[in-house]
Hints:
Layout: H1 2-17, H2 31-39, H3 42-73, H4 77-105, H5 107-126, H6 131-160, H7 166-195, H8 199-230
Helix pairs in contact: 3-4, 3-6, 3-7, 3-8, 4-5, 4-6, 5-6, 5-8
Amino acid sequence: MITAAVLACYAAVAWLVLRDAPGRTVATEPLAARMAATLRLPITWQACVLYAVAFGGYVAFSVYLPAYLQTGYGLEQADAANRMAGFVVLAVLLRPIGGWLSDRVGPVPVLAGGFAVIAVMAGVQALTPGLMPLGTIAFLTMAAALGAGSGATFALVAQVAPADKVGSVTGLVGAAGGLGGFVPPLLMGFIYGELGSYGLGLALLAVTAVITLALTVTVIRAAATRRTAELPVG
Length: 234
């Protein structure tokens, strides 16, 4: 009920305060045609993959980390929840910083660095080190990288997607992030039920981050470079 009341208040404030940008072009094509055109863009699918890993990983840990810490390290529920809160706060703080860095050095280097960090730290955590200090460092570092990668993904969309389709691409990318956060907790629970260990699940995260890193430095870097070259000078 509290959450519903807050959302209702926010909706009222948004209705009164928010305004469209001056000179915004209103789309005239039917919704189905616009969505079909968006789905044909390579950047739509590429950014969906990036966001499913970056934001999806952050969402998955925010959901499953307390259970992981209680089962894997024997923490009390309150202690596990507090540590999860620290993970979430750090990821949220790094999201705008990831966007800020993308404005200065480009989204591709930020994404590449983030996925490299995730791969290394997930590989370390797959070995189930002691929680203090190595496990804590691994999780907090992953939180920072996931948050920065989430912000950099939308910076990439703004840079590569056609201007009249940024909103549509962003909507689909956001949906992919939600789906990306839905699957890992189910997979982690299944793996622990079968093997009695979370190591394989974290190893799979490391492999996924390596694959996403490879995609970033090849296909996505080429798309970003090509789009930059097409922009008019000045």
